[in-house]
Amino acid sequence: MGNLVLGLAQLTDPAVFLALFTGVLLGLTVGALPGLNDSITIAVLIPVTFGMQPSIAIALLVGIYVSSACGGSIPAILLEIPGTASAVVTAYDGYQLRKKGHGLEALSVCMTSSVFGGLFSALVLIFLSPVLASAALKFGPAEYFMLGVLGLATVVGMAGRNCWKHFLSMLFGLWLSCIGISTATGLSRFTFGSMSLMDGIPLVPRMIGLFGILSVIKIAEKVDRVSGHDVLKRQQGVSFEKKDRVAFPSRARCRQLLPVWLRGSTIGSVLGCMPGAGMTMAIFTAYDMEKKLHPDKKFGTGEWEGIAAPEAANNAVVASSMVPLLSLGIPGNSTSALFIGALTIHGLVAGPTLFTKSPDIAYLILVAFLIGNIIMLPLALLYCKYLAAQVLKINPIILSALIIALCMAGSFAYKNNIFHVGVAVFFGIVGYLFYKLDIPTAPFILASILGNMMEKNYINAMVYTGSATIFLHRPISLALVAICAVFLAWPWAGPLLKRFGGQR
Question: Which residues span the membrane (predicted)?
Fold first, then answer.
């Protein structure tokens, strides 16, 4: 409890609180702009935060992460254009509700659902992260290696029909982590004679390319060359009924949706704690559950449960995705992985040692997720009331030029190295190829981060015993091996179990 007070004390600093407030407002705006999301914004802003105090920088980034998924529901409901990938399912019923004259009320329900899910997962983060972190301090090289394997196993195990694409993406990420000087032999690997590759490929320019540069390419594909604004054309059709308004949902509506919020928040929190699962799986799982629990309702035609469930689930993923990052040093998704870069440029290391070496920052992150969601509810309702329609009118050509400028400046500013600008451009092209071939980037990002950790801890474990049986002799490591086996076997065992069940 005393440590939480330490984190709360950080937010009493007006500059830190203002940074969190600004981040929440910026996240809502970014989410409302189709083509942008939290990953792009955080990737671009990480180098900019270099000159800030760590507490101010972290509060700003947490604020963006907290609210951007919520902001993505605004264009999803008004225009049937998801502002972020996490709002894809919200558009199914949200836009139909707007066509029925309930657009502003639907926005209110979305904002409230998002805050409920965010607060739920913030409490999970606060109570679970320190416990896991204290247990993780007892881990040795064998346990950390198996944690890395588990992170990759969850990606494969939850891939579904596209298992081979997830596996291919993961292999590319593991290869990328091998570039540079080997920690085992001291020899250079895959540097192709380039001195700039001796230290490997840095995370921040890589993320700027995968998210920032890629977003510009996507916008360029969709923009109408004549008017320069394809979204504006659809914006002209947005209208609202006189009785429809932005306000906190009524008691009757809250009683109707409370079970939905609880189910969606639970699903999002559980999947958020699993590396590689992400928001997409959470929103579809929550939506499918409500469809099964309400067979009498026609989802996709304007059902309130159809927007409440995915919105609660996507924001529940936000804070819970930080649980494995803060407690174990393993990012829960690609956005939380960006916080590794943010902590690194301020001389901090994600993982259990953060709670012992820098408890003020660790507990600031925990408290900021909670306070950020509390700030978000009134701010989101006011935002939807006064700015929701106007923010969608920003010309995407001007927006693209601004993103490119920030990406180039951010990549160079990371270490004042022009080579990193080339890295960002290269990975923008790589991201575009992944996008066109429908290959997910999350396994690639996770594997490229975990690769170095796995290699280092595997070598240390082998030096310690000289035998791979160490992974079976230590209880925690053995338990992780068993869990990995379940995840890896599930894509094949699941269909077989369903087939035998159907025969009976």
Answer: 15-33, 40-66, 72-92, 104-132, 144-160, 167-188, 260-287, 361-382, 394-412, 478-497
